[in-house]
Each structure stands twice: as C-alpha cells, then as structure tokens.
Amino acid sequence: MTDQWTDRLSEYLDDELVPEDRAALEAHLRQCVACGAVLADLKRIVARVQTLEDRLPTQDLWPGIAAQIGATTGTGSTSAVVPFDRARRRWSFSLPQLAAASIALMAISGGATWLLHPGGAAPVATVPVVSPVPAAGGDPRVALTTSRRAAGQSYDAAVADLQGVLTAGRGRLDSTTVRVIERNLATIDSALAQAQRAVAADSANVYLNSHLAETMRRKLDLLRQAAALVASAS
Amino acid sequence: MTPPGTGVATLEHQALGRSDSDAVDATLAASGDAHAFERLYRGHLGRISSLARRMLGDEDVDDVIQDVFVRAWQKLSTFRGESAFGTWLHRLAVNVILGRRETLGIRRQRHLDGDAALELVPGRRTTPEIAMDFETAIERLPAGAREVFVLHDMEGYRHEEIAQMLGLATGTSKSQLHRARMALRQHLER
Q1: How far is the CA of B147 from the CAs of A168, B10, B120, B144, in angstroms?
Q2: Last residue within a domain, chosen from B104, B139, B160
C-alpha cells in the first residue's frame, strides 16, 4: 500500500514540498486511492490533536513551588518576596510607543468629556494631553505623569457621574443585567487595582501605563452602556 | 423594565483580555508579588502540565512542572513584554523539559529507527475512551517521534526550530513527524 509518495504526504500536508514535487504528488493522488486515504487520515490526526484538552496534575503543585521561591502559602499570608534573579528591568521606549500611550490618555480624557456632555458638540478635551512628540530636552515620562494626573481627575468625575446614574436607575433594570454589570465592574475594578499597583512598581513602563489607560476606558465604556440601558428602560 | 438579558452580550465583552492581565501579573511578580505569580501559575498550569506530560510521560512530570515555574520566577526580570507571557513561559518550559529529558536518559532511544518501535504503540479502535487512547498513544510513541510530533503538531514549532532545539537535521525532524502521524492513524475514530 505504500509507494514512493507515501512518505512525502506529511510534507505535502504541511506545504513543505517544492512546487515541482507538489505538482507530481497531486498528479499521483488523482490516481492513487491508497495515498488519498492516508492523506485523509493525516489531516484528521492534525485536526484531532487540536481538540485534546489540557490535563492538570493530579495534585496541587503550588505549595512546593511556593516553598522553593520563598513564598508562604495559605489565604492572605503570602508575602512579597524578591525574585532570585531580580534585576531592575530596563525598558526602552520608542517615540511611537510614547505616542500610543499619549493617544490612550487623550482618548480617556476626551471620552470623559463626551460622557459628561452627551449630545453636545464634538468632544473637546478639557484636560491637558501629552504631546505625541516630547519637547526637545524634556522628559516625556514627566509629561506623561502630569497629563495622567489631570486626565485622572476628569476620569474620576465621569465615573462618579455615571455610577450615580446607574445607582439611581438600577431598579429599572432586570436582575440578570444588573448581575452582569456588577460582575464585570468587579472584574474591571480588580484589574484596575492590579494595573495601578503594577504601574506603581514600574512607573516608566509605557505598556503598563497604556494598559491602565485601556482598563480605565473599559470601565467608562461599561458604565456608559449601563447608563444607556437605564435611560432606555425609563 | 428591560427585557431579561438586554445588553448582556455586549456587556460581557467588557471582560479583560488574558494577555493584559498576564502582563500586569508578570510585572507584579517581578517586583516580588507571589500572589501575582500564583495567578500566573494557575492560569498556565494546564498547558505546561500537558506539554511536560506529552514530552516526558508521567515519570517525574510533577517535578519538571515545578521546575518550570521556579525557573520562570527566577527569570521574570528577563520577560520584557515583547511577546505574550504565555509564549515566553512556553519557550522556557520547552527548554527545561528538553534539558530534563537529557538527564533522564530519554535520548538513548530518541531516534530508534522507527517502524519496529512504532509497532509498539497499541491500537484500540472505536472505544468510549478513544480520547484517552489517543493521548496515551501519543505518550507511547518512541521518544524522538513523540518530541517532534508534540512540538510540531501540538505546539506549532517549525521543523527548523525543532531541528535546532533537538540537535537534528531538518529532514530527520520531518521523517520523525511523518512516522509519528502514521503510527497514530490506528487510533483515529472510524
């Protein structure tokens, strides 16, 4: 049942044959039922392995790992420990990365303004934003921090306003919707707290700052949708 | 009152992405937060465990998994967020596993010239436990064929990468993969 082409079928399946061999094998497949059947099986195997589920160990290995890294186990008792090879991470940022972070902050401050004045004219940022290109000689991280603080004030006001709308109108929403909103708010608040701690640990990390900004934006989006649901239920 | 579930589907999309939370936890862990590292451990344990088990079999696999995560903790400072944390961890795990298999002496039979060894993989067709049989059949492949099969078909590495990791010629990697697939044919549901 095997012939000179059978051993090339996996390469054919993985598209690793040169064009001449591929054409020759395809010509062979048109007349060889046995090779066609093998090829079909090989395709099924490749598909089959993608459906296998991950298998967890039969026992929790965390206590052993925690002991080796110097952490304690048990609820609420894990202490912060210093990684074995902890060297201060060196981050370098390109101007496009800084610009991306700036845009994220602009989106937050602009979005907050729009949220506070829905139906008004085109959004106008009411807080300072970071210039995508830092001034010559200036430290872009300083500008970033200053802008974040200003944007944060506007953000906090927008969040408080929307949460007030939600609190006042939650009785008009069905219980399933309220439950989903609360669960997602809790998830986002937890992520926000973690992101804020991460930024505190590595304040120069533009990725983390951008992630924090994105998480804040998601909370605003969620609150805005919740407020819209309250309005539509009125 | 809104109809039940109005807007729920949209609201569900507010959930945070896994890679984002991983990146945050990785940074926290690198600063010494063991809670954050435990979250990473629990989030990635299944995949790392499966990889180790498929590459090495059951023997000492728990010890290897622990070793992977301890090494990850030690090397967190080298994770720079240029790829997803899961990708970084996976690469590290493959290196630890390949190092361990050398220690275990698996290499002796790695490239056992094949067809006779592949015949050792028992076949059972159309049983209710076919899924486990397929998983078991993978674990019973000769070490060399199994390593290539797991790395290529399950983990997505290219032959050139596998050849470099295992110290093989690229052609050998390709032939081992084909042999593994051919041996597993008998374990397909019919």
Answers
A1: 60, 43, 17, 5
A2: B104
B66, B69, B81 member nearest A207 (Cβ): B81
Phi and psi (nearest 5°) for B154?
Answer: -105, -35
Supply the pTM of this predicted model.
0.59
ipTM over 0.90: no
Has residue A119 been placed in a domain? yes
The alpha-carbon gap from A20 to the nearest alpha carbon of chain B, in Å, equals 18
Contacts of B150 (CB under 8 A, 6+ apart): B51, B54, B55, B138
Confidence of residue A37 (pLDDT cuts 50, 70, 90): very high
Query: In this structure, are B49 and B85 located in the same domain?
Result: yes
CATH number at residue B176: 1.10.10.10
Chain centroid to CA B133: how far?
A: 18
Q: Residue A3: is it exposed, middle or buried by C-beta count within 10 angstroms (0-12/13-18/19+)?
A: exposed
Hey, of A1, A53, A54, A216, which one would you mutate to test binding to chain B, going by the most B CBs within 10 A of its CB? Answer: A54
Residue B57 backbone class (left: φ over 0; alpha: ψ -120 to 50; beta: rest): left
Pick from B24, B35, B73: CB nearest A198:
B24
> Which of A8, A55, A173 is most worth mutating to test chain B (most B CB atoms within 10 A of its CB)?
A55
Q: How many domains is chain A built from?
A: 2
Residue A84 buriedness (CB in 10 A; 0-12 / 13-18 / 19+): middle
Q: Which range, of A93-107, A177-191, B170-184, averages the lowest pLDDT?
A: A93-107
pLDDT tens, per residue, chain B with 190 residues: 444 443 444 444 344 556 667 888 888 888 888 988 999 999 999 999 999 999 988 778 999 999 999 999 999 988 877 788 999 999 999 999 998 877 766 544 544 444 444 444 444 444 444 554 788 889 889 989 999 999 999 999 999 999 999 999 999 999 999 999 999 988 876 5
* C-alpha distance from A42 to closest chain B C-alpha (Å): 6
